[in-house]
Amino acid sequence: MKTTEKTKSAESVNKVMGIKEWAQIFILSIIWGGSFFFVGVAVKELPPLTIVLGRVALASMILLVIVYFKGERMPSSLSIWGSFLVMGALNNLIPFCLIVWGQTHIESGLASILNATTPIFSVVLAHFFTREEKLTLNRISGIILGWIGVSVLIGIESLRGFGLEVFGQIAVLGASVSYAFAAIYGRRFKDMNPIVVATGMLCGSTIMMIPLALYFDQPWNLAPGAMTIISILGLAAISTSLAYIIYFHVLAIAGPTNLLLVTFLIPISAIALGVMVLGEQLGWEIFVGMGMIFLGLVTIDGRLLKKLKRKPVWYYKI
User: Fold this and answer.
1) How many domains does the structure of the chain reveal?
2) What are the distances in angstroms from CA 37 to CA 32, 272, 307?
């Protein structure tokens, strides 16, 4: 009975996905891809902690205004705010800092591809930390393909030198692990208004980032240019605040499985912006590695494979 209900629920979700929702997923991928571009601009003049503080502080203020005008209320419970702090650390503070630091040593396009490994880490962690999502043959195969892709990206020759570029790649992979933990921890907020959760999470992140940025970066001594300031504003207003609003809207309608498609699209916009605007150049191994990671994600997702299996043999004959 439970299996039948889950199947019906999944089918109803797929039916709801209309042109509007697909358009929002595409827009979200561009917005999140743009975050790697904004960071790529900002790291040329600002240290990592200052960039992250600017991002979460401005984004939290924007979302607080939205919460107010929507007539919502932020919770007063200390235990909930404690959970917001944990979620803020896992979903903002740790990954944002690692990605920004990583991008001081690697291209924005490569960072976005490595960040696309988040679902691979998610399925591994979900197996150990949840009861519902255990590893299957598809998921194990997808994980193996994904890690082959990561190995191609990093390269065996790079591991021999193990310079800052490799550490930058490892830092972005660490951010993906943190995002995966955040996805599991965030399940406790399923009964709360998603915008309130996002706002509380960003406020918690800001509280934690203020002493770190002030102590280590001393931002009052910095003098960023106009492009850097615009990048921070874009990072906060577009790639964080607006992204969360679209994300939670699509999540409520289409469900988390369909949102996995964003992972496939983010590197496309990030690479395009990096090449056209920042003048980045990516070698063939980057695209081979990206292809392997995406093939792994397709295998983990399983929907495309199921559709191919449903087709009769004659369907593929010319």
Assistant:
1) 1
2) 9, 9, 35
Contacts of 144 (CB under 8 A, 6+ apart): 296
Tell me the C-alpha to C-alpha distance, in Å, between residue 278 and each of 55, 73, 167, 185: 20, 41, 22, 36
Domain membership flag for residue 140: yes
Task: Tell me the pTM.
Answer: 0.86
| 315, part of any domain | no
pLDDT in tens, 265-309: 889 889 888 888 888 887 878 888 889 998 988 888 777 667 766
The answer as to whether 9 is a domain residue is no
Range of the domain at 300: 29-304
More confident residue, 186 or 311: 186
Token pair, residue 126, equals: 């979900």
Give 118-163 as a DSSP string: HHHHHHHHHHHH-SS----HHHHHHHHHHHHHHHHHH-HHHHHH--
In a domain, 12, yes or no: no
